[in-house]
Amino acid sequence: xxxxxxxxxxxxxxxxxxxxxxxxxxxxxxxxxxxxxxxxxxxxxxxxxxxxxxxxxxxxxxxxxxxxxxxxxxxxxxxxxxxxxxxxxxxxxxxxxxxxxxxxxxxxxxxxxxxxxxxxxxxxxxxxxxxxxxxxxxxxxxxxxxxxxxxxxxxxxxxxxxxxxxxxxxxxxxxxxxxxxxxxxxxxxxxxxxxxxxxxxxxxxxxxxxxxxxxxxxxxxxxxxxxx
Length: 228
What we know:
Elements: H1 3-20, H2 41-67, H3 76-100, H4 108-136, H5 141-175, H6 179-197, H7 201-215
Helix pairs in contact: 2-3, 2-5, 2-7, 3-4, 3-6, 3-7, 4-5
């Protein structure tokens, strides 16, 4: 491959990474500890979705224990519910509502945003009830059944909810913005994350969910591979 073509491909790769909001480092330079990685607005929202999906998998295991007549490890449900409330609902969903949903005053994306907003409200009601059940210790079999039912209801709603945001709403949001405005939103989201969750708030929340996965025995990704 001649040098001119290599330069062309290198320029295209770096430009594509920048457009996606990925870290662009100097030639031959690896990402070092302490490097600040800037992400785009949509990448920020989508990686938060990843944390929530991992939390819902923890919820699945808690529900399975309850339906099997077993008590999940102490504190797992209460801590998971707190992560959902503080990170998922009070921070992530409020940000979606203020910045993404509000970008569509009319049309199909406004209709979709309305459905997503109503699901946020439903999720908050379910989470509030789960917090009550966790605080009460779920002493009765009826508490176990109700808790498992609510955990399954959240997963059933949120998986398609997150998928529609990732594949429909967020791309439409990006398309409404100039490159400069989109970059500005990325910076704004990072500022709000620090304000709401504290320094390294995303990383700390992810670490908390990882510990919950360990408690429920699902930290090993290979354990999800079908044995066929």
